[in-house]
Design a protein that fits this description.
Strand content: under 5%
Number of strands: 0
Largest sheet: none
Order of helices and strands: HHHHHHHHHHHHH
Number of domains: 1
CATH topology: Hypothetical protein af1432
Distance between the termini: 22 Å
CATH class: Mainly Alpha
CATH architecture: Orthogonal Bundle
Number of helices: 13
Structural class: mainly alpha
Length: 230
């Protein structure tokens, strides 16, 4: 469900995986234990699952959202929290917290509860940075993608307003180091997506459709009755 929600804005379906990995790396940077970082990686992948319940007409609107539409968008935090609140699995409980509060702001001007400063769970403060960075560098229907440095400059400008100032400093240093060490930062952060059965199946379907368009599939020998398509 989380990947399906992501695909509606990011055709690769890898947004949640990149956010999860970057969140875990930031958590490690500030001293979290390995198990906690791995749990955060998994939990953060589900942060936008609530967008599953938002009409595409609103989600993909290229114009500035009207008030009613904005309220609908903001509701995805509550929807996501409710979807994830039914589980006792530790990673899912962390995911619920993140889904509910990753749009809160350090200055208290966020949503849905206008939490401020350290009242915002640290997991959500971490994911907020990773989420905004990925959104800026990949673009959205209403905004073109920006470079890594442009994204970091925009995030630095929100230090102490939208984002936890201490976490922001660690985040900026971390991403600059990762960008130096990895020629393809997207591939590095989205590596886990390559193991997703959902995305593997989606890629295979895309290949089959391309073969049909090219005429390759039409000339292939018919499969014997009862043979399933793997």
């Amino acid at each position: 469900m989380a990947i399906a929600a992501d695909i509606r804005e990011d055709i690769s379906g890898e947004h949640g995986f990149r956010v999860g990995r970057l969140s875990a790396l930031l958590a490690r940077e500030i001293g979290w234990e390995r198990d906690a970082c791995e749990a955060l990686d998994i939990a953060a992948r589900l942060h936008d699952i609530g967008k599953f319940g938002i009409p595409e007409k609103i989600l993909l609107d290229e114009k500035t959202l009207r008030d009613a539409e904005r309220q609908f968008i903001e509701a995805h935090t509550r929807v996501g929290g409710e979807i994830l609140s039914r589980s006792d699995i530790p990673q899912v409980r962390i995911a619920e917290e993140i889904a509910r509060y990753h749009h809160e702001r350090w200055d208290g001007a966020g949503y849905p509860k206008q939490l401020k400063g350290k009242d915002i769970p640290k997991s959500a403060r971490i994911v907020a940075l990773a989420d905004v960075f990925d959104a800026i560098t990949h673009g959205r229907p209403y905004a073109p993608p920006r470079s890594v440095e442009e994204a970091l400059d925009l995030i630095a400008g929100q230090r102490g307003r939208q984002f936890d100032p201490e976490l922001t400093d660690h985040f900026l240093a971390l991403v600059r180091r990762l960008a130096r060490e990895n020629k393809d930062l997207d591939a590095y952060l989205g590596k886990a997506a390559k193991h997703s059965p959902f995305l593997k199946a989606r890629a295979r379907i895309k290949e089959l459709l391309a073969e049909e368009r090219d005429g390759k599939g039409l000339s292939a020998s018919p499969r014997p009755p009862g043979v399933t398509l793997n």
